[in-house]
Specification:
This protein is 23% helix and 26% strand. With 384 residues, it is α+β, with helices and mostly antiparallel strands. It has one domain. Strands 5, 6, 7, 8, 9, 10, 13, 14 and 15 form a nine-stranded mixed β-sheet that branches. The radius of gyration is 22 Å and the shape is globular. The chain binds fructose -6-phosphate and magnesium ion (MG) (2 copies). Fructose -6-phosphate binds next to loops.
Length: 384
């Protein structure tokens, strides 16, 4: 049986207005490009979250396929041309390379892809976040696949009883580790509780699950724009694809973590902590203080390779309380102005424009001496 691949590929090719939203004409241009090259696709849908566009593509080419990535790149290029015509903000922002070469990874866009054997009915959720980083998915993914208080299926469904295997990437050291729940839960949390460094890349079923343990059931984009560009060009707002039901967490279990607006890095200037707010697609624009960070959930049935959907899954009054709580948390944090912990710690601001401000002060610093109680050996150092 041939497998189907779902590729969610995202980029910010121009903000309308500022970094708040996308423009409908850019989206139309991207859609028209996909239509023109649809011969290798089974299905496609274009969605948006804040200033990012996501291409949801189904095809038979497997993950990391050059033709699929080139097609996505071409669609973003066509969108960029319209964004430039309209003078949109940061037109072409995430297309960091002059030309496509092999794979969108490392060139600016982010990608989350899953290849799997299609079941008789295959529900998936494509999540897209704006104004945050890939590690923002750590907490919800852990809850979905590792926490029985979120996912009773781990306790009740024999197929899920063995738990799941998590592929964790250390995005600073470029290494990865596989940890399995429930037995490795504490080590897993030791890592993913530091989401700016350790990110959940994929989740796999374990032996005993009626789904193939070799086929991942969740995937998160982990590209790091700052490393690609060498300077800050915005947070690399992530996408994720999650498969659901029939031996996997139910749609309701997949969405449940978002009833808690957890704190993430990003928001204004990629330099603040803010609550993750689940929103219907029509409310994805990030206008208050360039945020707060938010997430949309596009549900699809993958049927004979086609995408039936999207169903706008956060368009449910049951998430109203989370949104209210997120706005209250946002108010509380905003009262701190430029103070930590609303502002990120210094090491996380290394790639922003803050070091320029610090450098400008470097001449003004005066070395302190023993008359001010500083030990002699440290006062001998020259002022840098
Ligand atoms: C956050 C983000 C925005 C910008 C901010 C300043 O990821 O993209 O908050 O950092 O609007 O943008 P510039 O420096 O382009 O004026
Ligand atoms: Mg932007
Ligand atoms: Mg964005």
């Amino acid at each position: 049986m041939t497998t189907i691949t779902v590729s969610a590929i995202k980029a910010d090719v121009g903000g309308y207005v500022g970094h708040s939203d996308t423009h409908p004409r850019v989206r139309e241009a991207v859609e028209s490009s996909l239509t023109d090259h649809a011969d290798i696709l089974e299905g496609f849908h274009v969605t948006s979250a804040g200033d990012d566009l996501q291409l949801v593509l189904t095809h038979r080419q497997g993950i990391d396929d050059e033709r699929i990535h080139e097609l996505a790149w071409g669609a973003f290029e066509r969108g960029t041309a319209v964004a430039e015509d309209l003078g949109l903000y940061g037109a072409g922002q995430d297309l960091l390379s002059e030309a496509f070469s092999g794979n969108v990874r490392g060139l600016g866009p982010g990608a989350a892809e899953l290849e799997f054997t299609e079941r008789p009915s295959d529900p998936i959720v494509v999540f897209a976040m704006d104004k945050t980083e890939p590690g923002a998915f750590n907490l919800p993914m852990y809850k979905v696949f590792g926490d029985p208080f979120n996912t009773p299926g781990l306790v009740i469904d024999p197929s899920m009883n063995e738990g799941f295997s998590f592929e964790i990437w250390d995005i600073e050291e470029n290494r990865k580790v596989f940890l399995e729940t429930p037995e490795d839960a504490h080590e897993l949390l030791a890592l993913i509780g530091a989401p700016s460094r350790y990110v959940i890349k994929r989740v796999y079923p374990r032996e005993g699950n009626k789904n193939d343990p070799a086929e991942p059931v969740a995937s998160v984009s982990t590209e790091k724009l700052v490393d690609v560009a060498g300077e800050y060009v915005g947070k690399d707002d992530p996408v994720a694809v999650v498969r659901s039901q029939s031996g996997l967490p139910a749609i309701g279990e997949v969405l449940e973590p978002f009833t808690f607006p957890h704190m993430v890095s990003g928001w204004m200037r990629g330099s603040h902590v803010g609550p993750m707010m689940p929103v219907p697609m029509e409310y994805s624009q990030t206008s208050r203080f360039d945020g707060p960070p938010r997430c949309i959930a596009a549900g699809f049935q993958v049927t004979n390779g086609n995408l039936v959907g999207p169903n706008d899954l956060f368009d449910d009054v049951a998430f109203d309380r989370a949104r209210k709580q997120a706005n209250e948390q946002a108010d509380y944090l905003r009262e701190h102005g430029p103070f930590e912990p609303h502002r990120l710690p210094l090491e996380e601001l290394e790639y922003t424009t803050l070091p320029e401000i610090m450098d400008a002060l470097s001449e003004d610093w005066q070395r302190m001496d023993s008359s001010e109680g500083v030990p002699e050996e440290t006062t001998a150092k020259p002022v840098e």
